[in-house]
Amino acid sequence: MIQNLEAEILASHQMGREVFLLKLQAPAIAAAAQPGQFVHIRCSETLDPLLRRPLSIHDVGDRGELVLLYQIKGRGTAWLASQGAGNKINILGPIGRGFTLPANKRVALVAGGLGIVPLLFLARRALEAGNEIDFFYGAQDRERLYQLETLKAMKINLFVATDDGSAGFQGPVTKLWEHYLKERSYDRSYACGPRAELAEFARLVTRFSIAAEVSLEERMACGLGACRGCVTALLDARGKIYYENVCTGGPVFDAANVYWGDQVKWNKL
């Protein structure tokens, strides 16, 4: 059930250039949240800006804390970054379709840049379900590898890539993952990141016949499926294109159902 509540800010920390980690006291939402879901935040004390901002749930704490990791993109998120501990903000959530989580399997998580946001929470829940996790995390450079120490403290197999080679493998994280796909098998895989990177992820999972889910990002207005402002192109069972709301049909989708244009030729798993 979607909650509408005033959440108190417990802490707000700048993690990098225009990237902030926000911790809220929101026990009702934290208790109901599933990895891959998001919250819709009113980023103003007035009606300007009018539209809420959707932020994926980054993590939850055991005392009702809700953790968000986001980048300033405009007036709304700039206002959010200006808010400090003790202030309250209005949030709706949890919203959307989350990841499908197996138990006692080997899974791969592939995060590109701020694609780390929903995958940290997923990794935590996947561990709780007894899964073995290979986590592949890529960014432009070492400074943009957010939450790296948190990941290192988790019982996962962590593999890092940077475009400039300042940390780990030099090159795209999907290229690093492709190397391990040749020697390791996975029951399921998950990804979040830039669209081009997700398309390459989709190409690899069809090549190696791995069930996979992706978290997509689209601009949203209502966040509740009424306005049709965040549609994405999908493929039906006959290979015909249709459109679905990211806010309610997703933001997590089966990678085999996403229309990637001519970038990926799918064989249904």
CATH names the topology of the largest domain as: Rossmann fold
Largest sheet: 7 strands, antiparallel
Order of helices and strands: EEHEEEEHEEHEHEEHEHEEEHE
* Termini separation: 32 Å
Summarize the amount of helix as a percent range: 10-25%
Spatial sequence of strands, sheet with the most strands: 4-3-7-1-2-6-5
The number of helical runs is: 7
Shape: globular
CATH-defined architecture of the largest domain: 3-Layer(aba) Sandwich
| Beta fraction | 25-35%
Total DSSP E strands? 16
Report the CATH C-level class of the largest domain: Alpha Beta
What class would the helix/strand composition place it in? Answer: alpha/beta
Give a brief outline of the structure.
This protein has 269 residues and is of the alpha/beta class.
Question: Explain this structure to me?
Answer:
FAD binds at residues 53-56, 69-71, 76-77. One of its GO terms (biological process) is pyrimidine nucleotide biosynthetic process. This is Dihydroorotate dehydrogenase B, electron transfer subunit. By secondary structure, the chain is of the alpha/beta class. The chain has two domains: 3-95, Elongation Factor Tu (Ef-tu), domain 3 (Beta Barrel), CATH 2.40.30.10; 106-263, Nucleotide-binding domain of ferredoxin-NADP reductase (FNR) module (Rossmann fold, 3-Layer(aba) Sandwich). 21% of the residues lie in helices and 34% in strands. The chain is built from seven helices and 16 strands. It has helices at 27-32, 75-81, 116-128, 148-152, 173-181, 195-207, 246-249; strands at residues 3-16, 19-25, 38-41, 53-56, 59-60, 65-71, 88-95, 106-112, 132-139, 157-162, 169-170, 188-192, 211-215, 231-235, 241-245, 252-254. The strands form three sheets. It has a seven-stranded antiparallel sheet. Strand 12 (188-192), helix 6 (195-207) and strand 13 (211-215) form a beta-alpha-beta unit. The chain is globular and about 55 Å long. The two termini are 32 Å apart. Mean pLDDT is 93; it is low at 263-269.
